[in-house]
Structures are given as C-alpha cells and as structure tokens.
C-alpha cells in the first residue's frame, strides 16, 4: 500500500504539471461543462413559471437547486477516457504505456483527479454566481448530507470504471466515436442531466435504474437535495456497490481480452 501511495503521489505531481500546460483547453472544457446544465436550468425554470409555478413538484427555485448540484456532481464524476483511448490505440502511444510495470488505469485516475482539482475553483465560482442569479431552494436533511459524500465517491468510481471498460472497445476497432455518441446520448437522458428523472416516463426511469446511469449522477444529486427516504438511499448505495463489483469484473475480463488482440496502428 505504501508503494502504491508513493506511486500515486508521483502520478498526481506529473499529471498536475501536465494539466497546467493545457490551461486554454481546460477553460474551453469548463465552459462547455457549465453551459449544458445552465441551458437545462433556464429551460425548466421557464417551463415551471409558465405552468403556474411548478412542474412535477419542482418550482423554479427547485430546478435551480437541482441543476446547480447536478453541475457540481457531474464535475466530480466526469471522465474523458472514452475519447483518449481511441487516439492512443490509433497513434500507437499505448504501446509504451503497456510496457510500464503499473496498470495504466492508475495514471488515468491521476489525470482525471488532477483536472478536477484544477477546474474546481472555476466551477465553484460560477456556481456561486448562479446561486445569486437563480436563488435556488435547498432543503438540507442531516442524514442525507452525511450519506452524500460516500455516494458521490461511489458514483465517481462506478462511472470511471464503466467508461474505462467501454473505452477498451478501441482494442477491437480504432473508430469508436459511434459507440461514444450512443453512450453519451443515453447518459444525457438516463442520468438526469436533461431533466430530473421523476419527470420522465416510467420506461426511462426503469432503464436508468437498471443501468448504471442514475447511480452515477442523479442519485447523488437527489440525495444532496433531500429528495430520498433512508430506504431509497440505502437501495441506491446498494445499487452502486453492485455496479462497482460488476464493473471491476468486466474491466478485468475486457482488459485481458483486449491486450491479447492489441496491435498499434500508428499515425
């Protein structure tokens, strides 16, 4: 454990320095990351006001709270590995990574966490401005707030492992943009990013509960806002734990199979 800890410390230092070299790219990403929930917030706030003050139990202030927390949760759980693996395989840069004694997932985790730390002040600054503008209504429940951080950590791990496993499709095909688009469109609707899941049709809610999408984004948001009962919270964390185990098994299987068929394509 001490050896792994030391490795992570060095990985974080390297990743942090690397991320600082791409400040402009991080700013562009940050703008896109903020615009998506902001657009949904504006749209649903307008719908709420035009519908007599609320839609499905959400007032304009409730929508503001939901999408502001969503923006922060999405920032804490996002990954980009599904886009980078195709490039690494196609350009052949993954070959040198495979020669290292450490599994490449560790460097990807360090890169991901480093980018979050660098962009977090910007996200918090924008969230503070939006709170002043939209005046969200928060209803804090002590036990739910205590359960939020463990749920958020599980959400990040599950989302990272699921997307890292899907990224390994690049071992079999060097053009995975179609797979990525299908996944992210599904995530947009099934994880509560377009609208709170309670406002969507039952088949959509059922699919989001069966698949990992709800448990990686919407569940921590609902928990933070105090919209879940203790039983629902425990059920959600059980679902997260189940997906954690399943994603670890799938990752191990897909990784071993993918490395066997891997061949560098080159530029």
Task: Kindly list the characteristics that best describe this protein.
single chain, 267 residues, mainly alpha, 11 helices, 2 strands, globular
Summed up, what is this model?
The chain is mainly α and 267 residues long. The protein has one domain.
Mind sketching the topology for me?
Blueprint: H1 2-20, H2 23-50, E1 54-55, E2 58-59, H3 60-77, H4 81-91, H5 94-98, H6 105-134, H7 142-167, H8 177-190, H9 202-210, H10 213-224, H11 230-261
Antiparallel strand pairs: 1-2
Describe the structure.
The protein is mostly helical. The chain has one domain (2-261). Helix content is 76%, strand content 1%. A hairpin with a 2-residue loop joins β1 and β2 (58-59). The longest helix is centred in the C-terminal third of the chain and has 32 residues, at 230-261.
In the sheet with the most strands, the strands line up as 1-2
* Amount of beta strand: under 5%
- The number of distinct helices, counting runs of at least 4 residues, comes to 11
SSE series: HHEEHHHHHHHHH
Low-confidence stretches: none
């Amino acid at each position: 454990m001490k050896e792994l800890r030391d490795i992570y410390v060095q990985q974080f230092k390297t990743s942090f320095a690397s991320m600082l070299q791409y400040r402009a790219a991080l700013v562009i990403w940050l703008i896109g990351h903020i615009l998506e929930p902001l657009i949904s917030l504006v749209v649903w706030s307008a719908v709420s006001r035009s519908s007599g003050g609320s839609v499905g139990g959400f007032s304009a202030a409730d929508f503001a709270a939901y999408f502001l927390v969503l923006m922060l949760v999405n920032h804490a759980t996002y990954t980009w590995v599904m886009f980078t693996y195709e490039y690494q395989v196609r350009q052949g840069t993954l070959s040198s990574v495979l020669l290292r004694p450490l599994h490449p997932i560790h460097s990807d985790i360090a890169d991901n966490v480093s980018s979050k730390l660098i962009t977090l002040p910007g996200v918090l600054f924008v969230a503070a401005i939006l709170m002043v503008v939209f005046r969200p209504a928060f209803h804090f429940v002590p036990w739910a707030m205590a359960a939020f951080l463990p749920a958020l950590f599980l959400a990040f791990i599950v989302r990272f492992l699921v997307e890292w496993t899907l990224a390994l499709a690049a071992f079999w095909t060097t053009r995975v943009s179609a797979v990525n688009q299908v996944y992210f469109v599904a995530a947009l609707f099934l994880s509560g990013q377009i609208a709170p899941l309670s406002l969507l049709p039952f088949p959509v809610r059922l699919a989001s509960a069966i698949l990992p999408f709800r448990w990686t984004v919407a569940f921590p948001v609902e928990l933070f806002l105090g919209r879940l009962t203790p039983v629902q919270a425990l059920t959600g964390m059980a679902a997260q734990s189940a997906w954690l185990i399943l994603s670890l098994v799938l990752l191990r299987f897909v990784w071993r199979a993918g490395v066997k068929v891997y061949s560098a394509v080159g530029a």
